[in-house]
Specification:
The structure is a single chain. With 331 residues, the protein is mainly alpha-helical. The protein has a domain of 110 residues. 78% of the residues lie in helices and 0% in strands. The protein has twelve helices and no strands. The chain is globular and about 55 Å long. It starts with a helix and ends in a 5-residue tail after the last helix. 42% of the residues are buried.
Length: 331
């Protein structure tokens, strides 16, 4: 999920967003094919790492994110869009975590630190990018459909919130089960909760395409809260991890994938019944995974619920959106 699925979705977002940031043509043709093949090669190398050897698998697997960073940096620099270079920081962090994952697993048999680094990188990206698109899309819809209180624009409070939360995550990477980490995560969670409340999400219930973005982001402060409790030894560490990954990463990426698929193919930005069903499925999957970690007696049953709901969400996306993505753009 970290270096295969999320890396692919992140690349799709960057390749879509960077042309809007820079005014340059999107990556296409041979360079895009090279990226696709590098991703496929990486997944194949990991699957066949036993006969290939860990070093060969690592080199092939890690090449993808390196190419993504180089391609994104080239486009941003060529377009002189300096302010968005900061987005590459967490992407580089994810790339280094991928390298560390293979090395740590080879030496120690586990890759717990590298996994936490990757999760932290993904969360920083969600806080950074999600913190721009959620209020922006919400403002656009509210201005048109439901006049009244609007989301507050990205400002100093958002920058401070991200910085404090990122510092708490760095502490969590190094010492996840420590009272100081727990206190830092509590502060980060409160700041992210306040940040979410500033975006007027309660006014978006009529349009699920917007509401789902707020629900997805809500798993960020929830993960901070659960990880803080875990740092104090009150609950298992896995509860926070599932809130962040199945919840925030899984739901946010699905929400952005559906919106981008509709918007970039000329369709109306409205969540139909099928889209709402896959949103419900991914939220059920995330909640079942979190509750299963908190209540051991229900773990096995909820694990099956989570798995079936997750499959329903992403298989549903494939069935619903394949016709949309394979048709010519309208207009």
């Amino acid at each position: 999920m970290l270096f295969g699925y999320v890396a692919a979705v992140l690349t799709g977002f960057l390749l879509t967003a960077i042309p809007n940031w820079t005014g340059r043509l999107p990556l296409q043709g041979t360079p895009l094919l090279v990226l696709v093949m590098a991703w496929v090669a990486g997944r194949s190398a990991v699957a066949w790492s036993a006969p290939l050897g860990w070093l060969t698998a690592a080199l092939v697997d890690c090449a993808f994110l390196l190419l993504v960073v180089l391609a994104a940096a080239r486009e941003i620099i060529a377009g002189q869009n300096w302010r968005n270079l900061k987005v590459l920081g967490p992407v580089c962090m994810l790339m280094l975590a991928n390298i560390g994952f293979h090395a740590e697993a080879h030496v120690f048999g586990l890759a717990e630190v590298s996994i936490r680094v990757a999760i932290a990188a993904i969360l920083i990206l969600i806080m950074l990018i999600g913190g721009r698109i959620v209020p922006s899309f919400t403002r656009n819809w509210l201005s048109r459909e439901n006049p009244g209180r609007l989301p507050l624009p990205f400002g100093r409070f958002d920058m401070v919130s991200i910085a404090v939360s990122a510092a708490a995550l760095c502490l969590w990477v190094v010492i996840p089960e420590d009272p100081w980490t727990g206190m830092a995560l509590c502060v980060g969670g409160v700041l992210q909760c306040v940040r979410l409340a500033r975006w007027a999400g309660e006014r978006t219930a009529r349009e699920r395409l917007v509401l789902i973005l707020h629900l997805a982001y809500a798993f960020v402060p929830l993960g901070f809260a659960l990880s803080a409790l875990a740092a104090f030894g009150i609950i298992p560490q896995s509860a926070g991890l599932h809130a962040w990954m199945a919840g925030a990463a899984g739901t946010m990426t699905l929400a952005v994938m559906t919106r981008a698929s509709l918007g970039h193919t000329g369709h109306e930005l409205v969540a139909g019944s099928g889209t709402q069903a896959i949103y419900a499925a991914v939220v059920v999957a995330a909640c079942a995974r979190v509750v299963g970690a908190l209540i051991p007696a229900w773990t096995l049953v909820l694990l099956h619920v989570a798995a079936l709901a997750w499959i329903a969400a992403f298989a549903g996306f494939a069935v619903l959106y394949a016709p949309v993505l394979f048709r010519w753009r309208r207009g």
